[in-house]
């Protein structure tokens, strides 16, 4: 069946279906002659399962685990249950705070005492920091506007861990201060449009895949055995694949943003990398990977 029929059956949008295909959750056959995708009943069934799990706020990466190994559904669901319980606790605390604010409301002066706000804000903030995704949400709150959207686009992949140690607490505080010290950037209208688009995508989709340490180690091991000519051929092939991928809007947007930042000499302070390595295992692994590749290639 074609995508319009699948949309009617599943209630999913075309973009959602394409996204789940791009992330590898479904793999419909392709009619290259007519440039159509041909969806089977099995694809539709998978999409229904994916839709249900997403309504339960199960991350796409965890859905992929369930689809590849159904025996792990219990493990994923237990993890999701813990996440939901954390959110319930946070919502209950928020409810209690609102009730406390209402109790402290001064009917005479029609205002709330500043000290009440400060105490309750601290109480709420401590709890939020222990939750996954806190840094992503805070980044958007602390830096509203186009700068925040740009930072969200470039850093979101590495801000999904909770702040659960004093070292991370200091690193997060320092990262925010360093970002705040970056000079104001003037964004032209076309770049603003791209920022709006990619910001919406990073909000609604999980575009960044977790680094696979085993694959990285294997790649580095194979790279170390290659001759200079073989490494150069691999580099050329990788650059060629990037060029081929430029046809996609997301890739185009990414390249245009990188070009804009480069041409306008917008460079994040080096300290950002230091703090990100503390805040994110993924970012730390990426840095180690790059260092190892550099050592091998000279």
Automatic annotation (TrEMBL):
GO molecular function annotations of the record: DNA binding; DNA-binding transcription factor activity
Transmembrane segments: none
UniProtKB keywords: DNA-binding, Transcription, Transcription regulation
Domain HTH merR-type: 1-69
Keyword Nucleotide-binding in record: no
A Pfam family that the UniProt record links to this protein: MerR_1
SMART domains per the UniProt record, alphabetical: HTH_MERR
Domain of life: Bacteria
Keyword Transcription attributed: yes
Record's protein name: MerR family transcriptional regulator
């Amino acid at each position: 069946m074609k995508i319009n029929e699948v949309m009617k059956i599943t209630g999913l949008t075309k973009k959602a279906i394409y996204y789940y295909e791009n992330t590898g959750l479904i793999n419909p056959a392709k009619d290259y002659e007519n440039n159509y995708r041909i969806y089977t009943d099995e694809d539709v069934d998978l999409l229904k399962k994916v839709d249900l799990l997403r309504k339960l706020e199960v991350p796409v990466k965890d859905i992929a685990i369930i689809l590849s190994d159904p025996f792990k559904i219990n493990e994923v669901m237990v993890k999701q249950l813990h996440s939901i319980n954390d959110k319930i606790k946070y919502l209950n605390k928020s409810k209690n705070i609102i009730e406390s604010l209402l109790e402290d409301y001064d009917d005479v002066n029609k205002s709330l005492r500043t000290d009440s706000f400060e105490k309750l804000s601290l109480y709420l903030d401590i709890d939020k920091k222990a939750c996954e995704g806190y840094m992503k949400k805070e980044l958007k709150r602390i830096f509203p506007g186009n700068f925040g959207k740009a930072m969200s686009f470039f850093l979101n992949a590495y801000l999904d861990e909770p702040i659960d140690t004093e070292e991370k607490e200091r690193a997060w505080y320092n990262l925010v201060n360093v970002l705040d010290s970056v000079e104001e950037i003037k964004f032209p209208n076309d770049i603003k449009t791209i920022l709006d688009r990619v910001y919406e995508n990073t909000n609604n989709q999980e575009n960044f895949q977790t680094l696979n340490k085993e694959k990285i180690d294997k790649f580095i091991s194979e790279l170390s055995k290659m001759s200079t000519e073989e490494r150069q051929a691999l580099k050329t092939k990788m650059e060629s694949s990037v060029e081929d991928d430029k046809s996609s809007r997301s890739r185009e947007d990414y390249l245009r943003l990188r070009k804009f930042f480069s041409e306008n000499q917008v460079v994040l302070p080096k300290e950002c990398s230091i703090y990100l390595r503390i805040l994110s295992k993924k970012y730390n692994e990426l840095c180690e990977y790059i260092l190892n590749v550099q050592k091998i290639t000279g």
